[in-house]
Write a structure and sequence with these properties.
Blueprint lengths: L2 H29 L12 E6 L3 E3 L4 E10 L4 E9 L5 E8 L10 E8 L4 E8 L10 E10 L7 E14 L4 E2 L1 E4 L1 E5 L7 E3 L3 E3 L2 E7 L6 E5 L14 E4 L3 E10 L5 E11 L6 E9 L2 E7 L6 E5 L14 E4 L3 E10 L5 E10 L13 E5 L10 E3 L15
Parallel strand pairs: 1-11, 2-12, 14-19, 25-27
Antiparallel strand pairs: 1-3, 3-8, 4-7, 4-9, 5-8, 6-7, 9-10, 9-12, 13-15, 15-17, 16-18, 18-19, 20-21, 21-23, 22-24, 24-25, 25-26
Length: 393
């Protein structure tokens, strides 16, 4: 066996003997403790902190055991900290400066039982006959909230089996103060918009559906600034566009979660167009140019027969005969809301005896009787005059 291993075994045996001796000493002192029910003035306070702390699954935090001697010189102490093992796991326990604050050595026994949810701490001074009278921390325990827990709310860390020994090796009475940790459930942001698309001006009511939230921050128009802190707000979109709405919901710790949704706002369609003479003057070709607003589809009727002649945005059409022609353009937006513009084109013949006379093509206002879904407009505009070499028919 290696020498290092032998030294380690001897060291462990020595610690084991000291632990056994100290435990026997504690048992002796406990046996000499005042009977149950006896009333004595406490001579020190033992406080478990934090008094209240808020935490989430996965958080790490420290629990400290502090002592404040009042009328006794504290020479040694023993206690257990009890916790819920289904919620917390112990990372470490370390010595505090209370019993060694004057530089004197101490003997420590520390035992952690994560399965049972108990932490034992024993510490005593040795080599001197005096105790300590200044308040300080006895030990610090590092814990972690488990990632998956079944219950939330207030979780208590309790002090049990507390024994305080003074410099006369007498057990002294103490006040105890337990600690608490409030486990906060994670925030889950969610909301439902009343509508997700419509025509401007569009008013949308947003209904919060978040879990475990106490505050709400809304950004309605994608500009990165908070537009409302109301839980269930309302917002009006006056301009067409695609808007990303975000909600950041938070809990008492100001820990938040953010979710987004899209609102599409469309403009009301307004049909309009212009017409110009094309390159061909016999027969007459007319170029139609769309001038509509908020349109995504176009339906043209060039000759007033009620049937669709073209779905091109900027079409051309040839009129082989003179006469009056009702031209209509029906446009629609993304929601299939429609609007129609209609005019009458009058194509005139040249005088037979003077075929070189400039012919005129006029447009006349045309009244329509649209159905209930259409907004009809009448207008007139001039189409360029054109020269037609009329052959006399």
């Amino acid at each position: 066996m290696k020498i290092g291993h032998l030294k380690e075994i001897k060291h462990l045996r020595k610690i084991g003997h000291l632990k056994s001796f100290f435990c026997l000493l504690m048992l002796f002192l406990l046996a000499a403790a005042p009977p149950a029910g006896a009333v004595f003035e406490p001579s020190c306070s033992v406080i478990l902190e934090p008094d209240v702390r808020y935490a989430h699954p996965g958080d790490t935090f420290a629990v400290t055991v502090s002592m404040e001697p009042q009328s006794a010189e504290v020479y040694g102490c023993q206690y257990e900290v009890v916790f819920d093992p289904a919620v917390f796991e112990v990372l470490s326990q370390s010595q505090g400066p209370l019993l060694s604050q004057d530089g004197q050595p101490t003997f420590i026994i520390s035992d952690i039982s994560s399965e049972e949810g108990k932490i034992l701490y024993v510490e005593t001074r040795y080599g001197v006959k005096t105790g300590v009278i200044s308040p300080n921390i006895v030990s610090t325990i590092e814990l972690r909230v488990k990632d998956s827990i079944s219950s939330y709310g207030v979780k208590e860390f309790a002090l049990e089996n507390v024994t305080i020994i003074d410099s006369n090796l007498q057990i002294t009475c103490s006040d105890l103060g337990n600690g608490k940790v409030v486990l906060m459930e994670p925030v889950v942001s969610d909301f439902t918009p009343g509508v997700t698309e419509g025509e401007a001006p569009l008013t949308v009511t947003f209904t919060d559906a978040s879990m475990n939230a106490v505050s709400w921050s809304w950004d309605f128009d994608s500009d990165g600034s908070v537009d409302s802190y109301v839980q269930n707000p309302e917002y009006t979109y006056n301009e067409p566009g695609t808007y990303t709405v975000s909600l950041t919901a938070a809990n008492d710790l100001d820990t938040g979660d953010t979710i987004t949704d899209i609102i599409n706002v469309y403009g009301v369609p307004v049909a309009d167009f212009t017409a110009t003479i094309g390159e061909s003057d016999n027969p007459l070709t007319v170029n139609f140019t769309d001038a509509s607003n908020n349109a995504v589809s176009w339906s043209w009727d060039f000759d007033g027969d009620g049937s669709m002649d073209s779905e091109v945005q900027n079409p051309e059409y040839t009129y082989p005969e003179s006469g009056k022609y009702a031209v209509s353009l029906t446009v629609a937006n993304e929601l299939s809301t429609i609007d129609m513009e209609s005019v009458t084109i009058k194509v005139k013949k040249s005088p037979v005896d003077n075929p070189s006379v400039i012919n005129s093509v006029d447009t006349l206002p045309s009244s329509t009787s649209p159905d209930s879904t259409m907004d009809a407009y009448s207008s007139s505009f001039d189409i360029w005059n054109y020269l037609l070499q009329y052959t006399g028919q």
